[in-house]
Batch of 4 targets.
Target 1
Amino acid sequence: MSIKGGVAIVTGGATGIGRAVCEGLAARGAEAVVVDYAHSREAAEELAAQLRSNGTAAQAVQADVADERAVHDLIDQVTATHGRLDILVNSAGVTRFIPHPDLDALTDDVWQLILQTNLMGPFYTARAAGPALRRSQGAIVNVASIAGHRAAGSSIPYAVSKAALLQLTRSLATALAPEVRVNAVSPGHVDTRWHRDHLGDEAAAEVARRNAETEPLHRVSTAEDVAEVILGLLEMNMVTGQTLIVDGGRHVKYGN
């Protein structure tokens, strides 16, 4: 498939990796890019306006992927407006920063919040978008995390949700075949607002510096680095059920 002329939905598209994907889709000639958001209305509308000014039919649509009804409404709105859907990128995600030994802090509410958004959200969107994607021979890319491969990450529920998302990717790749390809990316540390908001600018910069020292490529990823891989997977016609780790090669040294 080709991104050029395609219609795409990017969940969590207002900020971070999702925003970089939206910009990359537009740059590669997507006909329409739907910027899905749950809370970041201002950022989503600003991005959609930017994309429209550059010639892409873009719109910001509020739909919390944890809400199955909202997901169905999103898909129905996009297919009714554009007549098709070719691309789905599941970038929406949440976490809570909880040290792994603090098991008492892992309340049912924390588990439900994270699993509902990070796991059920991509399932809801894939299921709702499936018929339209089958018709267009489309593709899905899920944004997982290196935390899904190892005992790390912002919290245990976050790591569990991303590990489950990797298995969901493999399962959907078989369930939606042969018409729809489903792949995933697993970013390591990415220099985004997400870390800076939690740690503060100085602490986030120091964490990024330390991580860069341990990566073979000697720098941490940007949102644009991850988006480049996502865009590549969308156009790889013989690749499905796969996960690409995007962390500058750091994972090959884990455990050493």
Target 2
Amino acid sequence: MQHLVAVILTRDEAHNIEPCIMSLRTWVDGVVVWDGGSVDDTVVRAQRAGALVVVRPFDNFAAQRQAALDTIDAEWILFVDADERATPELAREVRAVIGGLAVGYWIPRRNWIVGHALRGGGFAPDYQLRLLKRGNAAYVAERAVHEIVTLAGAEGYVSAPLVHYNYLTWEQFHRKQRVYAAYEARILAGRGIRPRPHNFVLQPLREFRRRFFTLGGWRDGQFGLQLALWLAWYYGFMPYRLLTQAPRAA
């Protein structure tokens, strides 16, 4: 059994996969690329960079991560996305903490969006539960994106970040937010929630207030304001708009 293996979930990440692997391979005991069916040359590039590649048809992120936990023979799994890079500081800290009592560790992300390193708005420190003791962690199957992990044991925190090149362009940002808005609409529909007129005003206002004031989006100045407005649209307004277009149950 290997002590620490980094797992990178991929699907068409040819432009990201090699630098991601190179940020990991010198300090973990193995790198596994868990590919969801790429049609570009992600697999070839990953193998060339020294990673083991496992191909599993993509269903959702939680199922992919759980399949990796169930399959990979390692005591500890570090999940890293292809658009993230491990820092030398993170490498040293991870190696130090896995000898401790916790069975899962939250890692902060330093998010970059359209060329801006963010300081607030929910994007900093943006903790993610990514370092898991394999026999003590499980993903909640019902949470297909923005996954939730349950731990049988204590959790801990590290201070060194993963660098996350989140969205390189506004077009990429808007495309992904439309996906997330549709997902949130499905969650609301599953709970039997139907939109009311006040939702289209109060929900965007609440989301803007949360992003810009509560979570400190103001720290990023005009860019933070722009981002908070867009997220108020996608998370506060769009799910309810999509609900109005959903067919009612008979």
Target 3
Amino acid sequence: MSTLLAVILTKNEERHIRECIQTVTWADGVLVSDSYSEDATAEIAQQLGATVVQHRFINFAEQRNIALADAKAREAEWVFFIDADERATPELGDEIRRVIQNRTEVGWWVPRYNYILGHKMVSGGWYPDHQLRLLKIDHARYDPTREVHETVILDGEAGYLDEHLIHYNYDTLASFRAKQNRYLVFEAKILYDQGIRPRPWTYISMPLREFWRRYIRLQGYRDGWVGLLLCGLMGWYTFRAYRQLGYLRRQGN
């Protein structure tokens, strides 16, 4: 039998951690990689039988690479990454167990339902929102240049699962804004490191392109007023990311 650990990255997730862990009891164990939470996250995880290791947060890609190393040190063959605000169904657990025993792929994409403002998203890039989360440890690592929206470098083939993750990511607009504010700093740095230079028209063209991509090409209009709002906000945060990029360029020059 292949050994599988469910891995959760955390920072002040006491609100979610209990329910998350309770949905991955089909794994051989749960590893919580915690960035020194200041709430009861670590204590709750330990009460539920999870192994908790703590590391200073550097960036998302680095945290996942550290978690892979920690899982390998515990002699796991596979990891299933799940975020604290996500839930895995029993059906997903059964499918994961089946494919790691019977298939040769070394990574698996998982479709994900996103609930935003209480609405189950059906389009706009928020569904099916496949995530590469099931990884054979010796064949996977995260690209260190992608500090946010991490990218897996996989030595081998990947497959697609049928069963879903459920993601309760944004209950309120305030939570949406807070997370996007954190992301845009990383996104601007990625653009900067890629050598991208914003032009005067970029501050208009790139936000409009992002809105068009999500609302028209990815059919964000199918989610009604929630889709319109979120696509508009993603355009706005694209503008802010390029404005931050411009600031970095001025500082660098």
Target 4
Amino acid sequence: MHSFLVPGPGPYLLTHSVGCLPRAAHEALEADFIRPWAERGGNAWPGWLQQVDGFRAALADLLGGSPADYCPQSNLSSGLVKLLLALPPAPADQRVLLAAEDSFPSIGFVLQLAERHGFTLRLMPRAQLPDDLGSWSRALTSDVRLALATHVHSNSGRVAPLAGIAALCRERGILCVADVAQSAGILPTNFPALGIDVAVGSCIKWLCGGPGAGYLWIRPELLEQLAPVDVGWFSHENPFEMDIHSFRYAGDARRFWGGTPSVAPFVMAAASLRHIRGIGVDNILAHNRRLVQLFREALAPAWRGRLPAWPSGGTLCISTGADLEGVTRALTKAGAQFDSRGDVIRISFHACNTDDDALRVAQAWTEN
């Protein structure tokens, strides 16, 4: 806990929204971005680009694959747009983009507007649960070009069976893309081992890397089939060639990069990624599960029955019904930081949380 700068005054339960800032990331911003800028100005660029390379390497260390398979992005949605526009032409009878209706809205916005480019969006209804492989098997029909599977759903905490979905997609000639925004950093994840084709993610949540540090991971065998349209000089095989008549895609995932890159978000996120890896995702998950169990046992029996029974990512999404106002008031009085969607209150326990956090929020919840 002491390795994080934890906002007060009470339990911080918002990792599913914005992870706590590691002290190491705070220090890295000063040492690796601000100080070089102040001391070297434009001559800071070589060191800054090394820091971005360090971000790619830290992603590979934590999530699998090679640094060359990762491309920095400003956010998940931007990466998904770039991917869709880079796809090779598909047969006229295979133009459907499939996702679950319970996906994060930003995903739906991107896929819906892709219809301007000849695609058709199909959403699996909420009643067809996204953690049921049978639902995916029925939905992955021959007209589907790309399936977007959200690994952990932010409204419910449900975990999609990514490896199974990827296997079905592979058998049926469908591109499998995973949204890992709510799973990377809390669920042990290895992209190549899962069998997915592409992962889109960000570091703002369980990876504690802050906003602006998104990424694309692309299966290397797929790369040569993808021709991004949204490019810039850092998408070039040699960004410093400076020949306006000659553009050649970078030979790795950097072809999705674009123009002059941001630096500060990736400096912070690289330090955060290394910090999370040092703690160990397995250890973070075990700590999360233990605090969830403490919280569950400390609740009044009537509330225990309302807790989700299915395996979740790291976030508890608890339906309060008519009790929303009372629970919200009690948690706020206790100083807890949390959020809600409709009548569902969301709380999450990370490495920055303690046993006392779990017990305090359970007591406030019970006494509302």
